[in-house]
Design a protein that fits this description.
By secondary structure, the protein is α+β, with helices and mostly antiparallel strands. It has one domain: Sufe protein. Chain: A (Alpha-Beta Complex), CATH 3.90.1010. The chain contains 7 helices and 5 strands, in the order H-E-E-E-H-H-H-H-H-H-E-E. The strands form 2 sheets. The protein has a 3-stranded antiparallel beta sheet with strand order 1-2-3. Bound molecules: FE2/S2 (inorganic) cluster.
Amino acid sequence: MNSDLETKIKAAMANPQNLGEMPDADAIGTVGNSDCGEMLRMWVKYKEENGRKVIDKATFQSFGCETAIAVASLATELIRGKTADEALALKPEQLSGELGPLPPMKIHCAELVQGALRSTLAPERCEENKATSTPAAAQQVPSLMDKMGSGERSVGGKKITFIN
Ligand code: FES
């Protein structure tokens, strides 16, 4: 990883945006990458704006690498004010935005964020996540914190648990 990218990721990690659960979310989705073991859960709240249903706020919780957390932080800001379809049209390189191009070994980190968006915004297209895509289902789903257990640390005043 080049030092410019590392610096940008460190900056995003120092002040991650939209980190944490959203109890009143309209939709929730979870994805995992079986290769690296990373998991990402996303919550979305919609609002009506000029006759359109747009994303009012999105938050995330991650047991992932710093790149996935940095991309999720940027992406949850980027999708604010967009419709679900507009957000779903964003490609991984657009989601990673200001981080710039990711090296090949880190592209799947942005794809994990794209997968979480898909799971949250279009659960009907994501068969494996149907069970956790509604607020009612979200109430019954253990949080990532519950699921993953110990090893927590604090970043930007929010708890993150890393699995490695
Ligand atoms: Fe797998 Fe980043 S290393 S999500």
